[in-house]
Design brief:
The chain is of the alpha+beta class. The chain is about 50% helix and about 25% strand. The chain has one domain. Strands 2-1-3-4 form a four-stranded mixed beta sheet, with no helix packed on it. A hairpin with a 2-residue loop joins strand 3 and strand 4.
Length: about 150
């Protein structure tokens, strides 16, 4: 039976080191402050999208008056644009509902960043593939999981 050594000792040829780009998840611990900031962010985005819909509807009426022969084309084009924004607003409503249900202290995935990681001959590939994350709380890094 073959027993794998703890860390395989392989002679590096010329000390070659390669860097790879690795995705690192950013997780946020929910606090009263972060919950309020997220609520404000989602609500501001929703308000902006509603304003865009209103502006598009105004522009649609204006174009229909200028080009009465192209009413169908204008309606189709503007309907698609308005529908796209309404779908985004529905998603924001969903996020606001989810945010309301989140408990203080729970973690959410905020986003991702890319990081450079050195690899060498003899490194354990499973260690390299292991997920990494950065945990933040009220905009302060509190933990780095490697």
């Amino acid at each position: 039976m073959y027993e794998r050594p703890e860390r395989m000792q392989i002679q590096e040829i010329g000390g070659i080191i390669m860097q790879i780009i690795k995705t690192v998840q950013i997780k946020q611990v929910i606090t009263e402050l972060s919950k309020a900031k997220l609520f404000e962010k989602f609500q501001t985005e929703k308000d902006r999208l509603q304003l865009e819909c209103d502006q598009l509807q105004f522009e649609q009426l204006k174009m229909k008056k200028q080009h009465p022969q192209k009413t169908q084309e204008i309606d189709t084009r503007f309907h698609e644009e308005i529908l796209e924004r309404e779908e985004k607003m529905d998603m924001l409503d969903f996020k606001l509902d989810q945010l309301d249900q989140l408990e203080i202290g729970s973690e959410i995935i905020e986003g991702e960043v890319h990081s450079l990681q050195d690899i060498r001959v003899g490194d354990d590939w499973n260690d390299i593939l292991e997920e990494q994350s950065i945990i933040i709380k009220d905009d302060i890094v509190i933990k780095i999981n490697e």
